[in-house]
């Protein structure tokens, strides 16, 4: 068996001998006819998600690559050992990978002839932080052996800070609405659990009634996935100004959530307050109001005059001092809400002073 170890040849991978050129992947490091290209020497990721370690290699023509091996060990170690193996594409070997990585590591390209040694590690944990080193095993002149590349990739796994992305379309009372929640990251390995809750008046948290949820996974590339949950329900004014929360639960126990305020376009019944019969010389005082979102613009008008009052707060008061019989007539309250203009009216009668009520 032959084993070529870079550390015996190079003190530093940053030396002019080791750094032989750049490629689309990154800096290439060679020992004679054996080269590896690592696009990044330091990678950061978040717990619960995944990390991809891009890697490609070339070998001497007489060497036939067969399997890819990856190690994780301390950066202070001169070289990783068999006990540090986290992945070995050779299923017939008795060299076991670390139990903590079992089922979480896979190659991006199964065909080793493509010279792609990239791996993806799913369901990340903070303990996955460390130094990763690749090795290629195969056959040289009829003998089994391998080549361990000395350059390593440092992976730092931090706590989960990314939040899901929640999309809330324009909501209108009485219409069906669909909210969308997309889990953070482009992969997580295991499919996460996504739940929806909303917090109504008084801070009570509950599920939206009359709803339906759907879950789907979109494959964006060979190793990337986007996990999406949709919530469909009939919007009502009760949902306005409440809080909706989308919570993501990953297999590793990490959770993240996003909370947004829900706004619903709605308009309640128009209400007019005031006396429809007023004695001559008194004050006519009429108030038109409507509960709505967004706030409605209210316009008072009179069929027999140009008396108007505009107010954009959802309530408008019309005041006429020292009324006369000429102020009798129909008073119209027009509500301008979005693309609608509903109206309500009140017939006002002004009586003479000599008349008794």
Outline the structure in words.
With 357 residues, this protein is an all-beta fold. The protein has three domains: 2-158, Immunoglobulin-like (Sandwich); 165-265, Immunoglobulins (Immunoglobulin-like, Sandwich); 268-351, Immunoglobulins (Immunoglobulin-like). It is 0% helix and 50% strand. The protein contains no helices and 33 strands. The strands form eight sheets. Strands 1, 5, 8, 9, 12, 13 and 14 form a seven-stranded mixed beta sheet that branches. The N and C termini lie far apart (117 Å).
CATH superfamily of the largest domain: Immunoglobulins
CATH class of the largest domain: Mainly Beta
Count of distinct structural domains = 3
Summing up helix and strand content along with how strands pair, one would put the structural category as mainly beta
Quote the CATH topology of the largest domain: Immunoglobulin-like
From the N-terminal CA to the C-terminal CA, the straight-line distance is: 117 Å
CATH architecture tag of the largest domain: Sandwich
CA radius of gyration? 36 Å
Which runs of at least 5 residues are low in confidence (pLDDT < 50)? 1-25
Helix content: under 10%
């Amino acid at each position: 068996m032959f084993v070529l170890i870079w550390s015996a040849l190079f003190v530093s991978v940053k030396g002019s001998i080791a750094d032989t050129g750049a490629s689309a992947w990154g800096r290439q490091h060679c020992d004679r006819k054996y080269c590896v290209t690592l696009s990044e020497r330091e990678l950061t990721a978040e717990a619960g998600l995944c990390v991809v370690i891009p890697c490609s290699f070339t070998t001497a023509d007489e060497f036939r690559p067969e399997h890819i091996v990856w190690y994780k060990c301390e950066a202070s170690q001169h070289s990783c050992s068999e006990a540090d193996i986290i992945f070995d594409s050779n299923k017939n070997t008795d060299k076991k990978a670390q139990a903590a990585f079992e089922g979480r590591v896979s190659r991006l390209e199964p065909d080793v002839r493509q010279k792609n040694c990239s791996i993806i590690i799913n369901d990340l944990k903070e303990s996955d932080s460390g130094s990763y080193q690749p090795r290629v095993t195969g056959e040289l002149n009829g003998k089994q052996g391998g080549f361990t590349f000395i350059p390593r990739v440092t992976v730092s796994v931090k706590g989960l800070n990314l939040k899901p992305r929640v999309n809330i379309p324009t909501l209108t009372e009485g219409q069906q609405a669909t909210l969308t929640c997309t889990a953070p990251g482009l992969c997580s390995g295991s499919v996460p659990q996504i739940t929806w809750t909303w917090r109504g008046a008084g801070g009570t948290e509950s599920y939206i009634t009359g709803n339906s949820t759907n879950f789907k996974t979109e494959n964006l590339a060979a190793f990337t996935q986007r996990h999406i949950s949709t919530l469909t329900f009939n919007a009502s004014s009760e949902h306005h100004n409440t809080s909706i929360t989308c919570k993501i639960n990953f297999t590793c126990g990490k959770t993240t959530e996003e909370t947004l305020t829900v706004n619903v376009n709605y308009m309640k019944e128009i209400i007019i307050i005031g006396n429809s019969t007023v004695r001559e010389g008194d004050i006519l005082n009429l108030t038109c109001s409507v509960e709505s979102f967004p706030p409605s613009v209210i316009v008072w008008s009179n069929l027999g005059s140009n008396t108007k009052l505009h107010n954009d707060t959802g309530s408008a008061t019309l005041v006429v001092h020292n009324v006369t019989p000429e102020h009798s007539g129909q008073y119209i309250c027009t509500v301008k809400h979005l693309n609608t203009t509903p109206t309500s009216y009140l017939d006002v009668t002004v009586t003479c002073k000599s008349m008794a009520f």
